[in-house]
């Protein structure tokens, strides 16, 4: 059996270990990108809650419709919005924004709906953007069609 052991060879017969390269000086690491801090702010109410009568007064002033015509339309719109929220539907109402329901909880005296509202940034009233100019160019004048 000794002859079999000698045929394998010894550790000294093995190929030499590869040489390690000389350590290169460490390059300075690229500067880490600076983190962007997003501030979360909770708006502090500066004015009292907007009640239905004040909302109706503002709608009448803005639309120049008589109060007796605006009141049923506003009440119907609020009822439809309330029913849609009760059904769990999300709302996408252009000037108000997109309402996404996060969770609901049934309480003894009613339902609590926790929702997020995302509003687009207001556009400049005076400045025409490239989109506005392109939209205006694509529309034909009524006189051109004749």
Total number of helices: 4
Helical content band: 25-40%
Helix/strand order:
HHHEEEH
Shape: elongated
- The chain-level structural class is alpha+beta
Given as residue ranges, the uncertain stretches (5+ residues, pLDDT < 50) are none
Largest sheet: 3 strands, antiparallel
> Roughly what is the average pLDDT, rounded to an integer?
79
The end-to-end span amounts to 111 Å
Q: Can you offer a commentary on this structure?
A:
By secondary structure, the chain is α+β, with helices and mostly antiparallel strands. Among the domains are: 49-87; 92-120, no CATH class. Helix content is 33%, strand content 16%. The chain contains four helices and three strands. A three-stranded antiparallel sheet has the order 1-2-3, with helices on one face. Helix 2 (52-63) crosses helix 3 (67-86). The longest helix is centred in the middle third of the chain and has 20 residues, at 67-86. The model has no long low-confidence stretch (mean pLDDT 79). It holds the Pfam family Bac_DNA_binding. InterPro entries: Hist_DNA-bd (IPR000119), IHF-like_DNA-bd_dom_sf (IPR010992).
């Amino acid at each position: 059996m000794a002859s079999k052991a000698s045929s394998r060879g010894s550790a000294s017969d093995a190929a030499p270990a590869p040489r390690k390269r000389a350590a290169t000086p460490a390059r300075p690491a690229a500067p880490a990108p600076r983190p962007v801090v997003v501030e979360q702010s909770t708006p502090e109410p500066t004015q009292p809650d907007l009640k239905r009568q004040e909302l109706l007064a503002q709608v009448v002033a803005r639309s120049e419709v008589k109060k007796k015509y605006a009141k049923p339309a506003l009440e119907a719109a609020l009822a439809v919005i309330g029913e849609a929220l009760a059904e769990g539907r999300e709302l996408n109402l252009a000037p108000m924004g997109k309402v996404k329901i996060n969770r609901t909880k049934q309480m003894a005296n009613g339902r609590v709906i926790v929702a997020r509202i995302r509003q687009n940034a207001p556009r400049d009233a005076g400045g025409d953007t490239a989109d506005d100019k392109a939209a205006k160019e694509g529309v034909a004048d009524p006189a051109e069609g004749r």
